Amino acid sequence: MSGVPLVEQAAAIASQFLSPRADQADMATGPPVEQIRRLAEAGLLGLTTPPQYGGEGAAPSVVRDCLAAVASGCGVTAFIYYQHIVGCRHLASCSNAPLKDRLMPDLSAGRRFCSLAFSHLRRPGPPPLRVLAEGDAWIFDGTAPWMTGWGFADDVLLAGVLPDGRSAWALVPLSERGDLQASPPARLCAMNASATVSLECRALRVEPERQVKTMTPAELAADTDRANIFFTALSLGAARAAVGSMRSGRCDDLIADAADALEREVESMRAAVDRWDDPATPADERGDATALRARCIDLGVRASNAAVVVGGGAANGLGHPAQRLFREAMVYSLIAQTRDLRSANLDLLLRSDKRVSK
């Protein structure tokens, strides 16, 4: 299947199925199972899985466009969905062939669902989750502060830090037991239905058949650049939905002009992201991935804020789409956040403040 039909399918599902249910999904007490099932039926859970395992093996630009479409329809669905396709990408690139042969066909088809628990690797300071080698096995001790989809996901891509500074990654089956325990779900201002918990590992033993890979700090830093480019899709999806929200109600010339300007920004930023990721783009013309993502985050927040302003007093209600989009855009500024990304975001905010004061 070519990339265009995949993106078209994602856009159609987002507009016809996800968006009409988004406010209800946002206020629900658990993950949007039917929404994820609909994505699975369309083959969208296999985007990052190679064809030999039943997946699409889609190009990165197609994966981003599909994720942006899902984010434009329903934030909590996108929040849970990206866990799976990121996990499948990491698994697909590993050398553990028996593990891939056993699990990737089911992950691609949506018969199994994968979540993530490795964002803590990007935190400065002592690692909250450590790993020791015991023969061929890895022993995980500590806490993974964030894991989404507890009670829904079958496996989690879990990572901790070895004594030599490398990170050890494993695909661990999820069940409450003595060596792996989940906290109560976190109360979140957005994506609250995502069943996001912290995972406590108590001498969790992972044998070689479930080990995925190790990464050096340099390899992790390079992967973080890729993550920054990938996650631009969430902010751009929210911005595109905000433009649609602005146009859906009373739309005078002022509102229409603002919506047109924001839409041009969205398309410009999408093109910039694609240029960064194009192998034909010279390295010295790509620019900084962190700065590029910060600009996308800024655009998502500004566009959703504009939708709130256009919505007026009604947008203060929890059930108003613009209010939900504003909260979702805020959450996207925190996903895979590093010190450099935080600095780039703050720099944009401060420069914006200086422009206003002149």
Give a description of the structure:
The structure is a single chain. By secondary structure, the chain is α+β, with helices and mostly antiparallel strands. The chain folds into 3 domains: 111 residues, Butyryl-Coa Dehydrogenase, subunit A, domain 1 (Orthogonal Bundle), CATH 1.10.540; 101 residues, Butyryl-CoA Dehydrogenase, subunit A, domain 2; 141 residues, Butyryl-CoA Dehydrogenase, subunit A, domain 3 (Up-down Bundle), CATH 1.20.140. Helices cover 54% and strands 15% of the residues. It has 11 helices and 8 strands. Strands 1-4-5-8 form a 4-stranded mixed beta sheet. The chain has a 4-stranded antiparallel beta sheet with strand order 2-3-7-6, with no helix packed on it. The longest helix has 32 residues. The protein starts with a helix and ends with a helix. InterPro entries: AcylCo_DH-like_C, AcylCoA_DH/ox_N, AcylCoA_DH/ox_N_sf, AcylCoA_DH/oxidase_NM_dom_sf. Pfam families: Acyl-CoA_dh_N.
